[in-house]
Write a structure and sequence with these properties.
Blueprint: H1 3-15, H2 18-25, H3 29-43, E1 48-51, E2 54-57, H4 59-86, E3 92-98, H5 99-104, H6 106-116, E4 121-127, H7 129-137, E5 143-148, E6 157-171, E7 181-182, H8 184-187, E8 191-195, H9 200-211, E9 218-223, H10 226-234, E10 239-243, H11 244-252, E11 257-261, E12 267-275, H12 282-293
Helix pairs in contact: 1-2, 1-3, 1-4
InterPro entries: LysR_HTH_N, LysR_subst-bd, WH-like_DNA-bd_sf, WH_DNA-bd_sf
Keywords: DNA-binding, Transcription, Transcription regulation
Organism: Paenibacillus timonensis
């Protein structure tokens, strides 16, 4: 079926006038009439009939008009969808995030984003640093929000640093090192509560010990989540090495205490990672724009 001719018929049926259809479509009346006659021949079905000085729909024309209304209503829906999608109003953002941003940054970012773009769907996978980048590289997600070292990113990953955060040694306020300044060699003799292998912060700690020729720390307790790690130290067991973003409030409330380790001043980089040279969806692009506005 000739959809152009069907559209002409639809406008005629909607306006009740070939003249009005000609004005709306900027097509001459003879050209419209010729297209309608051609459509009637193609369908072997009369669509229009004379009525006084104007025209009316035949019974077949009435039934075809009912179908054309549905067809062109769907067309309008598709056009609105495309406009909204290009504007970032619609879409589906798949996101992998390491535990630090997932728990302490992303909930606020998503709340702000959904307030502006309510109909954009979001899927968030919370995992460790290694797996977050693997999901990005394996095309399982569109973005990865990552906490770690900039030089750790693969060549095929484009990383944009949002901000930097200090890494702190923390213990219970009852610990003998609470608020004290000690050497790294002394600190690593304590039992440590850390995240699982693959955690960026854990890898930073191991690299720090290698850099200063200190013994490897004894990881006495290992958890897959930050909250469990912190709660164990608050309860009085061991020490941890963790982003200040995670524990600053606990320290300010007196539930944890910092240990100031001599010559150690490390920062954590919080970055948004994408696949290099690959365009983002409009929705993902707008989400990144929002977190640039409100990094933390």
């Amino acid at each position: 079926m000739n959809l152009h001719a069907l559209r002409l018929f639809h406008v005629i049926a909607e306006t009740g006038s070939v003249t009005r259809a000609s004005e709306l479509l900027s097509i001459s009346q003879p050209a419209i009439s010729a297209q309608i006659k051609k459509l009637e021949r193609e369908l072997d079905l009369p669509l229009l009939k004379a009525q006084g000085r104007g025209i009316a729909l035949t019974d077949g024309g009435e039934k075809l008009f009912a179908h054309s209304k549905r067809l062109f209503a769907v067309e309008q829906q598709i056009e609105r969808f495309i406009e909204d999608y290009k504007a970032g109003e619609l879409g589906h953002i798949r996101l992998a995030a390491t535990y630090l941003p997932a728990h302490f940054l992303i909930p606020t970012w998503i709340a702000k984003f959904k307030t502006r773009y309510e109909h954009t769907e979001m899927t968030i996978n919370t995992t460790n640093s290694t797996d977050a980048l693997n999901q990005l590289l394996n095309l399982e997600v569109d973005l990865a929000i990552y906490g770690g070292l900039p030089e750790a990113y693969p060549e095929s990953v484009q990383a944009e640093e949002l901000f930097r955060d200090e890494l702190w040694f923390v213990v219970s306020p009852r610990h003998r090192y609470a608020g004290q300044r000690v050497s790294l060699h002394s600190m690593v003799k304590e039992p440590f509560v850390m995240r699982e292998i693959g955690s960026s912060t854990r890898e930073r700690f191991m690299a720090l010990c290698r850099t200063y020729n200190a013994p490897s720390p004894r990881i006495a307790l290992q958890f897959n989540g930050l909250n469990e790690t912190i709660q164990a130290v608050i309860a009085g067991y061991g020490a941890s090495f963790v982003s200040a973003l995670v524990v600053r409030d606990y320290v300010e409330r007196g539930q944890l205490s910092r240990v100031f380790v001599e010559n150690v001043d490390l920062m954590n980089s919080i970055s948004v990672c994408t696949r290099k040279n690959e365009p983002l969806s409009p929705a993902a692009h707008r989400f990144i724009g929002l977190i640039r506005e409100f990094p933390h």
